[in-house]
Design goal:
The chain is mainly β. It contains eight helices and 30 strands. The longest helix is centred in the N-terminal third of the chain and has 13 residues. It is globular, with a radius of gyration of 26 Å. Bound molecules: copper (II) ion. The site of copper (II) ion has 4 residues, from strand 23. Copper (II) ion binds next to strand 23.
């Protein structure tokens, strides 16, 4: 095959379908990818930071693609880096003893194969279910519990729900006690476990319009109009809006990725974040029973938030003038496909930005806050996760995760209760669980020489220094090594973390900085430290981790978390206790919610929120949003209320 020189506008431009096709062909032609190998993922091999920093418009770009494949049914994975610019396979690595994320083809095989199995059919009969076609099968990541049947296999655990009609809510009628172990690589049932019959809950749990009866009739239209269009500009994957600039990326596991986030200040773009994304997440369940105790899905690393991204052509959730980005993925045969409109970008009015009414001068100034929203939504089985990055005119960046969808359920004996689950409908309970996310935040605050400080309030004892007992200090402690930087939130002390650049000072002589603010109480892992999931999702045992930048350190629980025994990723990297002061640092922030499910979360859950805010601290000379113009006159005039 001849080398093809591709001219691309920027090294971080999103991967194109023709690049994927070419890379897969090159790998096949070189004899590394058999026809029956399953392609797990294909991503842009992002260039080194220095290459991106040095790149000037018009410079040639080496576009390289990273391909992961499962050559057979076992535990061998092949990773290759293929340069489509050079037409060459650059690097091939083989990993032994590792499993890919759950493959869609193999998951579908589990759903198709299990209903044929006599023990499965018999277990359904014991529950009065005679038609296996009415049973919804959900393959789950199996975890790692040291069982013999896990050994050497890619497995899932399948659980089941009764759906008497196709539009039923399956989660309303869990078939309790029934779990099947399925060998995904070999496509065979390993074992069907029946832990005992519990009656099927009686209610259908419908939430479709036909199920809920008459809808409210007193909601009048509220239209968002932008007659002159949006205030953002888009060029390829590059976005500019209200002094902000960044590039949009898409990854099969992380979903939306933000690259090279900067703010234009006095004519130059000042970097803030080199790269930001959700690097991993886990949902550990708190019920100890055999049907639920093993549940701890890594929805990013085992399923893939990008792979599960919704196409927003199916109904958009945003109002106003919207720009969409497609998400490029690959099927298991190596053919690229696009999730159309996977990423939604639009602007929102967000109340007031700043205001003051000067009683003496009789002036009144108010500015409205506009925010730019870049979002995507992943449907991972029963749950939905919406990831919303917000950019504000005052230099703030926020990530808000919206949790919705349907909770994971269990059937319980009518009238019974549980310590480890809440009853949400007759005969139906939802185990307590957590949703624990980890955001990888590669800060470059005014450059790559950064130091992270822990900042909190320190009350002063009453004494000569504090006679009234009112005094408190702002205490800032530099986190200088990886071990010292494994930290928890402390809401009572207003604890947060500040990333400063000691080589860039503001007009007051202080280093410029950005702070990472926990926006609400956020839990860490509740499972015991010696439990399987606490090892596998060790990232969630601390809210903050800081590492020196290393290109290969991307995913908080390691590259291959599916069925992994644990302690990979953050605990492994940070065991070296590398120095982290005055260098290029990456912050890993674990946050989320502990979900004690309510009756109001059923049958579909109103959005629950989790997230954090990044805000400038001495990064600017003053409020950077003074120059936001007043809103046009007249918009505050009251209309008389109807009626
Ligand atoms: Cu939940």
């Amino acid at each position: 095959m001849s080398a093809t020189v591709l001219t691309t506008p920027h090294p971080l431009e999103m991967l194109r379908g023709d690049e994927v096709t070419q890379a897969v062909e090159l790998l096949r032609a070189a004899g590394h990818l058999a026809e029956d190998a399953r392609v797990v993922h294909v991503v842009l091999d992002e260039p080194e930071k220095e290459v991106v920093a040095a790149w000037q418009p018009g410079d040639p770009v080496d576009r390289s693609v990273r391909i992961l494949a499962a050559p057979g049914p076992g535990l061998q994975l092949l990773e290759a880096v293929v340069s489509v610019s050079a037409g060459a396979v650059r690097d091939v690595r083989v990993y032994e003893g590792m499993r890919p994320a759950l493959l869609f083809g193999e998951s579908l095989n589990a759903i198709l194969t299990l209903p044929e199995h006599p023990e499965w059919v018999a277990a359904l009969h014991r529950r009065g279910i005679d038609d296996p076609a009415q049973v919804q099968i959900d393959p789950w990541p199996a975890g790692n519990f040291g069982l013999d049947l896990e050994d050497g296999r890619r497995i899932s655990r399948c659980i089941a729900y009764l759906r008497e009609s196709p539009t039923d809510n399956g989660y309303a009628r869990p078939i309790e006690g029934l779990v099947a172990f399925f060998d995904m690589g070999a496509n065979e049932v390993i074992e069907v476990q029946d832990h005992g019959v519990v009656p099927l809950p009686p209610e259908r749990g419908g939430y479709l319009p036909a199920d809920v009866g008459p809808v409210r009739t007193d909601l009048r239209p509220l239209d968002i109009t932008q007659p002159e269009g949006p205030s953002f500009e888009v060029d390829g994957n590059a976005v500019r809006w209200q002094r902000w600039s960044f590039r949009v990326g898409f990854d099969p596991y992380e979903g939306l990725v933000l690259h090279t986030v900067g703010y234009e200040d006095a004519g130059r773009v000042r970097p803030v974040l080199y790269r930001a994304s959700i690097s991993e997440m886990v949902v550990p369940y708190g019920d100890p029973g055999p049907g639920h105790g093993w549940k701890n899905a890594f929805d990013a690393g085992e399923w893939g938030l990008g792979r599960m991204a919704n196409s927003l052509t199916l109904g958009c959730d945003c109002l106003g003038v919207i720009h969409y980005f497609d998400g490029l993925l690959v099927n298991e045969q190596g053919a690229p496909y696009a999730v159309e409109n996977a990423i939604c970008m639009h602007e929102e009015d967000y109340g007031i930005l700043w205001k003051h009414h000067d009683l003496h001068g009789d002036t009144s100034e108010v500015r409205r806050s506009r925010r730019l929203v870049v979002s995507f939504i992943a449907t991972v089985g029963n749950y939905e996760y919406g990831f919303y990055w917000y950019f504000y005119q005052d230099g703030n960046i926020q990530l808000e995760v919206k949790l919705t969808g349907i909770v994971s359920t269990m059937a319980i004996e009518p009238g019974a209760t549980s310590e480890f689950a809440n009853v949400i409908a007759p005969g139906l309970a939802a185990p307590h669980h957590q949703h624990l996310f980890n955001a990888r935040l590669d800060f470059d605050v005014d450059g790559t020489t950064n130091t992270v400080y822990e900042v909190e309030a320190a009350p002063v004892p009453i004494g000569p220094e504090n006679p009234l007992g009112n005094a408190f200090r702002q205490q800032a402690t530099a986190l200088t090594t990886e071990a010292a930087a494994q930290r928890e939130t402390n809401a009572a002390a207003s604890r947060h973390w500040r990333v400063v650049n000691p080589t860039s000072t503001n007009r007051l002589g202080a280093p410029v900085g950005y702070r990472l603010l926990p926006t609400m109480s956020t839990p860490t892992m509740l499972a015991q430290p010696e439990s399987s999931v606490a090892h596998r999702a060790a990232f969630a045992r601390h809210n903050l981790w800081v590492t020196p930048y290393a290109r290969e350190e991307r995913r908080a629980a390691g590259e291959f978390p599916n069925q992994h025994a644990g302690d990979d990723g953050l605990p492994s990297w940070t065991s070296a206790d590398r120095p982290i002061a005055d260098r290029d640092v990456v912050c890993w922030y674990s946050f989320g919610v502990t979900h004690f499910v309510r009756p109001e979360d059923w049958p579909v859950m109103p959005v629950e929120y989790a997230g954090f805010v990044l805000s400038p601290v001495g990064f600017f000379e003053r409020n950077p949003a003074l120059d936001v113009p007043p809103s046009h006159a007249g918009h505050c005039d009251a209309e008389p209320a109807a009626g």
